[in-house]
Amino acid sequence: MSAIQSSCAYCGVGCGISVSSNKADWTDIDAVDLELVGDNMHPANYGHLCAKGERLLDSLAQPNVLRYPKLRSGMPLDWDRASTLIADTFAQTIAEHGPDSVALYLSGQLLTEDYYVANKFAKGFLKTANVDTNSRLCMSSAVSAMQRAFGEDVVPGCYDDLEQADVIVLVGANTAWTHPVLFQRILAAKKINNARLVVIDPLSTATAKQADLHLAIKPGVDLTLFHGLLGYLADQNCVDHAYIATHTEGFDTVVLQAQQLSVNLADLATQVGVSVTQLTQFYQLVANNKKVLTASCQGVNQSTIGTDATNAMINCHLALGHIGQAGCGFFSLTGQPNAMGGREVGGLATQLACHMGFSQSEQQLLADFWQVDSVADQKGLAAVEMFDALAEGKIKAIWIMGTNPVVSLPNSEKVAQALADCPFVVVSEISPDSDTAKLADVLLPAQGWSEKCGTVTNSERTITRQRGFITAKGQAKPDWWAVSQVANKMGFDGFNFDDNASVFSEFAALSARVKQAFPTKVFDLTGLTDLSKAQYDALAPTQWPIASATQIGQQNVRVFSQGEFATATGKAQFVAPAANVSQQSLPSNTLLLNTGRSRDQWHTMTRTGHIASLRASIPEPVVHLHSSQLSAFSLTEGGLVRIEAIQNQIEQYSTETANPDLFPHASFTMARAVVDDDIPTNMALMSMHWSAQFSLTKGVNQALDARVDPISKQPGFKCQPVTLSSVELALQGVVFGQHDSSAHGLCWQVAQTLENGVCHHIGFTDTDDGFAYQATVHSLKWTLTVDGQPLYIQCNMDKGLLKALKVLSHTQVNVALYQMNDFIGKPVDKQLIKQLHQQIKAGNSPLICACTGVTEANINDEINQQFNDQVMSDGLANISFEQALDSTQLLLGCGRQCGSCHSEVKQCAKQSWQDALSYSGIDHQPSVAEDVA
Questions:
Q1: I need a surface site. Which of 19, 326, 609, 818 has the fewest CB within 10 A?
Q2: How far is CA 857 from CA 341, 720, 789, 848, 926, in A?
Q3: What residues contact residue 169 under an 8 Å CB cut-off, 6+ apart?
Q4: How far apart are CA 890 and CA 26, in angstroms?
Q5: Whole-Å CA distances, 691 to 335, 426, 433, 449, 750
Q6: Residue 813's Cα: distance from chain center in Å?
Q7: Nearest partner of 565 among 518, 520, 516, 525, judged by Cα
């Protein structure tokens, strides 16, 4: 069996995967012929994968795949006509309105080669720096902080530091869900090395539940917490004075500010929302251990003070002399598979290629290398600014590649309207179904993961070859090729690339030229400049900087370990925060809305939303609330909630020229209420994934304004004020089989993929509309009462076969979706109706483990069985929850695959065990030993 090594398409961990086939001919192969496992030799994951990674092959069966260029009207056209239309329109727009009237918006899903050609095209030949990427939404605050502190966008450490650290501090990072493979390495380090895990997060997440210390701070006080830590370290004389004097600048000014906080730990603890004991315990862990690693993610980055907060963390590690040392320092957890590769080639509007800025000498070097008279001479518009300019009519042509800004940007209805009004929108995509693709004037078929070839760079600076293994169908092309075609049509030289290897070769050569001209820069691919195509194709995972070819394959490389930095003086910079952070004062009818990822989904679900096993755990949009908030907002558990932005916030952060009448729905979304007492009482939590593609009420960014960090320009998605109100549904339920999505009166509609089809969760505010939905004179209708709940059932038939099955009620309907959908297509007779009643009465059980399909009921049953077996064999006095949990996981496999559901499995099992104890007359909580999945 032959195998091809590639990389995962999801997060920035950059896991290696191995795809194998029994077929010898890889040119005639499809997903059904393949098997996928983790690459045991890849240094990022050593064979481990998360639930999403394990199902990568399932992501290829898109419901609707784009294979040919087409216009908004739906008219197909070939690549020659499409590229000519784009070239002519961009050229005319620039001639009439100047180079900054056009823009490119890119994605961390692109390969480095795609990114490089797009940036060369825009910044070198169109003369505009209006080229930004969705990495702006997740990584730019960390980027800005590292640039300010180190002089360059460089993560100093590597994954090996997780195994060597004495203390691991995770800040604003639910790593158990967002980076499960890395989290398993953290749990292993806890068990093997006795490392201590500290989680700093307002929420009691799956990650926090497995921490040695959880600091449930107030939202937005990370900056205060770490600024105070710097003061504490100085107060306790724990800082490395020799390192500070030799290798840094600015310490004295910053530490004086910090000590104003640490002088009174009781006041500081009150400010950040934890007890003095907890605060002191955390500070002492950092002060008393030699190897402390701090890693942050979106909880820090997606804040209007994200850059300052990140610099506050870096300041602490600079003071301790930790940067570049094993098991120490600051680490930025990256959200996308090639966010770092995009930054390397200048994917952000605020930089040029190879980590260059816009100084005259840097511009000249790039112009000489690309053989043009000049390049873009100033920073371009960042993501939010770009779409504001689009709304204002300043940008008149835009090319969007591999991303879905209509869903992912804040104030998303405004973004949609801006694209609808823009004279010319080009979108490169693999599917025409995304919210953004539907607004394209020209839609281009891009090759997706499994088809395209190139490189990606993960969070620890490791470059991995992403290799195609399925021949692209139709006219789907690599993005670098599409850009090159347009560039050639515009008469630009320098875009006659033979293949992705020749693109990478040019990029590596530019890196060598930059390193030679600016030797203090760390980024360096000099050792890859002379690769043949065969060597490029066979390139092993390699961590940069790569000064010579002898370093190919190197790993665990740390930078700045000698205390030499990429700043003008060669010294790292302590950075003082711009201002003290004041807590928001919220009206009594307001909560802070936090957004984040669901465990089993990815971004706007265009890649994962159609995979049944990944949809099962959360079939509909939900908002998590503390139980005390239900009565405060007159809500019911399971009921629909309208989540609405505070109008004055929308007005404050919208552009002055925007007409609010154009965006009547820009300020709210809807979701089902889920009671979760792990949520702070002043917060609500909703996932970021939903869109119009899957839900009638679209996504959470409908209710968020476009405030940004003033330094990084990253949107502040986290903890914006909203108000909640109940949406009273007269009837709600599920329809299986045929569905009329435009039916009168539908106010709630969510599509869910099942293993055997698709169902739709629906709701109506008017009873008559609900009963009339898909009802005909031939429909079979009746009422079934289950546990006091009346269920209104309707069967629509064609030639005696069931074509549509509707189950409605006045409250939420809870049925087993897969089993119900299995009735579609069968003859409607007494036997079917009997079976239907039995299935409805059986109810449904929530999915706990996506890897194994294990439900809550499966765990409950097995725990009860383990309890009974132990009582029978050992007696009630000698039972062990740890043994029962271990046996349950061993038998069912839940929590023992990727491990991301381990805390949920343990919580479910614990509740079942406690119930069994209560029934036996014993009332105590079991002790739970740490388990490494």
A1: 818
A2: 44, 36, 21, 9, 20
A3: 198, 199, 200, 286, 292, 293, 294, 295
A4: 37
A5: 19, 20, 11, 22, 10
A6: 30
A7: 520
DSSP secondary structure code for residue 581 in this structure: P
Q: Tokens for 691?
A: 């869109």
Helix (H) or strand (E) holding 591: strand 591-596
Using DSSP, state whether 85 is helix, strand or coil: helix
Q: Is pLDDT above 80 for 136?
A: yes
For residues 356 and 653, the model is more confident at 356
Beta strands in 39-178 (DSSP E): 70-71, 102-106, 131-133, 167-171
Rounded CA Rg of the chain: 28
Model confidence at 500: pLDDT above 60? yes
Within its chain, how far is the Cα of 636 from the centroid?
30
Rounded CA gap, 113 and 369, in Å? Answer: 17
Q: How far is CA 170 from CA 175, 391, 459, in A?
A: 8, 38, 15
How far, in Å, CA of 734 to CA of 241, rounded?
A: 66
Of 845, 842, 885, the residue nearest 865 (C-alpha): 885
- Rounded Cα–Cα distance for residues 890 and 933 (Å): 10
Q: Average pLDDT in the 35-55 region?
A: 95
Asked if residue 474 lies in contact with residue 69, where contact means CB atoms within 8 angstroms, the answer is no
301 sits in which H/E element: helix 298-301
- Strand segments, DSSP code E, in 167-283 are 167-171, 196-200, 213-215, 248-249
Supply the DSSP string of 446-466, one letter for each residue. Answer: B--TTT--EEEE-TTSEEEEE
CA distance 804 to 824: 7
Written as six digits, the tokens of 931 are 């388990």
Residue 265 pLDDT greater than 70, yes or no:
yes
825: left (phi > 0), else alpha (psi -120 to 50), else beta? left
Kindly state the DSSP code that residue 76 receives in the 8-state scheme: B
Which amino acid appears at position 195 of this protein?
A: A
Report d(CA 97, CA 89) in Å as an integer.
12
Helix, strand, coil percentages (3-state) for the chain, rounded to 5, are 35, 20, 45
Cβ–Cβ contacts within 10 Å for residue 629, how many?
Answer: 18
CB 529: neighbour CB atoms within 10 A? 18
In this prediction, residues 116-136 reach a mean pLDDT of 97
361-396 residue pLDDT tens: 999 999 999 999 999 999 999 999 999 999 999 999
Q: What b-and-e string marks burial along 251-284, b requiring 16 or more CB atoms within 10 Å of the CB?
A: beebbeebbebbeebeebbebbbbeeebbeebbe
Sheet strands (E) in 112-216: 131-133, 167-171, 196-200, 213-215
- Pairing of the two strands 572-573 and 248-249: parallel
CA dist 773 and 239 (Å) reads 70
Distance of CA 540 to the CA centre of its chain: 27
* Residue 824: CB atoms within 10 Å: 17
Q: What is the mean pLDDT of residues 501-528?
A: 98
Q: In this structure, what DSSP letter does residue 584 have?
A: P
Paired sense of beta strands 167-171 and 196-200, if any: parallel
Report pLDDT for 582: 57
Contact present, 617 and 599 (Cβ < 8 Å): yes
CB-based contact 717:302 (threshold 8 Å):
yes
Q: Please state, in angstroms and rounded to a whole number, the distance separating the CA atoms of residues 744 and 723.
A: 28
CB of 398 closer than 8 Å to CB of 389: no
Measure the CA–CA gap between 124 and 118, rounded to whole angstroms.
Answer: 10
Distance CA 430, CA 452 (A): 11
* Whether residue 664 has pLDDT greater than 60: no
Contact 777, 745 (CB under 8 A): no
Only one residue has tokens 């360096």, namely 524
**Beta bridge pairs of residue 199:** 170, 214
Question: What's the pTM?
Answer: 0.91
Identify each DSSP E strand in 63-194 by its residue range.
70-71, 102-106, 131-133, 167-171
